[in-house]
Amino acid sequence: MANDRFQKTPSHYIQYLALKALCFMLRCLPYRVAVAYGRGWVGSTRRILRGRFRRVIRDIQLAFPEKSPSQCRQIARESWRNMGGIMAEFLKLSSMPVDEFKTYCRIEGIEKLRQAEATTGGIIHIGHFTNWEAFGLAASAYGFDKAVLAQRVDNPYVDEEINRLRNVFGGHTFYSNHQDKPFFACMRWLKKKKMLGILFDQNTISGEIWLPFLGRTAAFSPITALLAIKTQVPVFPVNVTRQPDGKLVCTVYDPVLPPQEYSLARVRQFTKTLVEYYEQWLRQDPASWLWAHNRWKRQAEGEAYLAAHPEERV
User: Fold this and answer.
1) I need a labelling partner for 221 at 20 to 30 A (CA). Which of 168, 175, 206, 258 fits?
2) Which residues lie closer than 8 Å to 279 by C-beta, 6 or more apart?
3) Does residue 129 contact residue 83 with C-beta atoms inside 8 Å?
4) What is the residue-level pLDDT of the chain in tens, covering all 314 positions?
5) In terms of pTM, does the model score above 0.90?
6) d(C-alpha 151, C-alpha 120), whole Å
7) Which three-class secondary structure state does DSSP give residue 127?
8) Residue 36 and residue 117: Cα distance in Å, rounded?
9) DSSP strand E in 103-253: where?
10) Domains of the chain: which residue ranges?
11) Is 210 in contact with 302 (CB distance < 8 Å)?
């Protein structure tokens, strides 16, 4: 399906070449040095993107009114640095042989995924926390034939490179914003008893469910709940944490089983159940979340909708 938004331009190519140069430099550095450089470089961009950084601080203050202004600023700074760490980790991990990769990133609870793959298939419930891309790499490195549902970035050259690295150990990508009927592509994948990863905490522009998230109304996609109910596969919450030595641990939680019958009310309630997992992790470690993403962009719209449709409050 053609989309002018994703057409290649000379400006896109220049941006891509600059990114490739940075990637080359990071790949030449030792792992921990590369991560430290990425953290420092991206962390410093908050001085350029001042408006966005102020919005991040405000969002943190609204989510954690009990924290002091200095604590909120520190969370914001660490979240900004984490973006650079994610980028460097992703580049270094995707260039490693599988055996070396496993020394830097491991999966705890992997037997739960193996059992699901042998019986029903399942959905990986993950979000923009710590390093979500590392788990995508890990799933393939540890032998799963997985697919991910992702959003394309506007620069098609950069998007192609990200997708290549994302699947360097194997895997498939379905696009929620640049693919005809991605829901049915995901359905077909799950019916093959495969594993599908979905980033749940992206802002949606249509087909949303309005739910409270960190005390404010946010739009959530119902696609995880819809797929789980329609195919009757379990959903596995996955939390990625970073150890003091910089290594990553992907913890697979016990499966969350969907309702056996479909209804809009059940979709809303199941989505809320999944959101609560992530909100709990975020409250425990707020600096590891991608606060730069404007998660409450449509808050006023959601509150107006729920005021007109109070029966949809969950």
Assistant:
1) 168
2) 213, 214
3) no
4) 445 666 889 999 999 999 899 889 999 999 999 999 999 999 999 999 999 999 999 999 999 999 999 999 999 999 999 999 999 999 999 999 999 999 999 999 999 999 999 999 999 999 999 999 999 999 999 999 999 998 888 899 999 999 999 999 999 999 876 556 788 999 999 999 999 999 888 766 666 899 999 999 999 999 999 999 999 999 999 999 999 999 999 999 999 999 999 999 999 999 999 999 999 999 999 999 999 989 999 999 999 999 999 999 98
5) yes
6) 26
7) coil
8) 37
9) 105-108, 122-126, 146-150, 172-175, 195-199, 209-213, 216-220, 235-242, 248-252
10) 4-312
11) yes
CA angle 36, 37, 42 (to 5 degrees): 105
- 310 vs 314: CA distance, rounded Å: 9
Q: Which residue has 């379990």 as its token pair? A: 234
Residues counted in the chain: 314
Amino acid at 172: H
The amino acid that residue 74 corresponds to is Q
